[in-house]
């Protein structure tokens, strides 16, 4: 009673950010503190609204009045797991097991306890493997109009250098190792390795391989703030030969929030030195050598329990030995994610629509293209993605994506439609 009285005195005079239904349920709970049905209704509304701490507080008060409520032990375990309180989650899952739940619920609880035990180990691995086929209407990212510029004069491209379609295969794998240093607040050493490869049926010049490694500590601070400085190295190959190498580092900051309108934000800053390698088929690539600086930021906002809105943006500066290779770009985008009931099977499907637009300006004209015109590109892209879980570890992916690039120099204008389908295995 004392706790509820204190809550009543702390209740804000204005509406909360969680909506009128939440506010009404909260008021009803305060007016009927011993009515467990009303308290449970508020807890479920709070969970859907993103107020996880509020839901936890309500459910724990229910156990004060009646500790023998197995569903409350179970719901508290799930909430504490979402909040990252592993030990509390395991404690409530185990207390729920003491009430001998039905076999399906018991199996689910035991699986979650095993997952939390694995997550709480000082050393743990996770990763994913992705295999896909991709068809592109413009696999060589070339203009569909033969009229271009060379040295400031009008010229025409041969048909073989115009837009061409192709089918390609993609394979990628990622492995992450986390080692908890046993500090409080937590410090976790995170090491990541990524491998990517693509092969085209016709355009061998677009065959690409990537090897990347990232290492750095993650500082898990109070209030769901995670700060992670890191070092990174990349090696990119084209047609089996080095395209460029890069090395550097950066910092990633993530902040989780329990509520609306924002449920989480992130900011990443990365500085890499890129070292390009010229070849017989790509002369003058070393003129692109220089620092690449990129800052990315974004925020997610839950609209409902199954609908989420994500906004993001980035600024990027690419240096270069040649001034005409230096450029500055900015991109903004939005994504809407919706979890929908599965037409078949038990697990819900994930559907997302992403749109983005960006501009990139170069520092000076390229005399080989047009000595009087600095290049300026405007890029647009929109994609529709579908994720279909097959099991706990496997999922199917499909994507339809459309790209457009508008440029003041016709050499760099193109559009491309791609269709991708693949399978993902996570462990």
List keywords for this structure.
2 domains; Porin; two-stranded antiparallel ribbon; disordered N terminus; 7 helices; 427 residues; 16 strands; Serine Threonine Protein Phosphatase 5, Tetratricopeptide repeat; alpha+beta
Please, could you describe this protein's structure?
With 427 residues, this protein is of the alpha+beta class. It folds into 2 domains: 2-119, Tetratricopeptide repeat domain (Serine Threonine Protein Phosphatase 5, Tetratricopeptide repeat, Alpha Horseshoe), CATH 1.25.40; 127-426, monomeric porin ompg (Porin). It has 7 helices and 16 strands. The protein has helices at residues 2-10, 20-31, 36-49, 52-65, 70-83, 86-97, 103-119, and strands spanning 123-136, 147-150, 153-156, 166-180, 186-200, 208-221, 225-238, 241-256, 264-276, 290-302, 307-318, 327-340, 349-362, 376-389, 394-407, 414-426. The strands form 2 sheets. The chain has a 14-stranded antiparallel barrel. A two-stranded antiparallel sheet has the order 2-3. α4 runs antiparallel to α5 (70-83), α5 packs antiparallel against α6 (86-97) and α6 packs antiparallel against α7. The longest helix has 17 residues, at 103-119. It is elongated. Mean pLDDT is 89; it is low at 1-14.
Summarize the structure.
By secondary structure, the protein is an alpha+beta fold. It has seven helices and 16 strands.
Q: Rough shape?
A: elongated
Radius of gyration of CA atoms, rounded to a whole number: 27 Å
Instruction: Give the structural class.
Output: alpha+beta
Residue stretches low in confidence (pLDDT < 50, at least 5 long) are 1-14
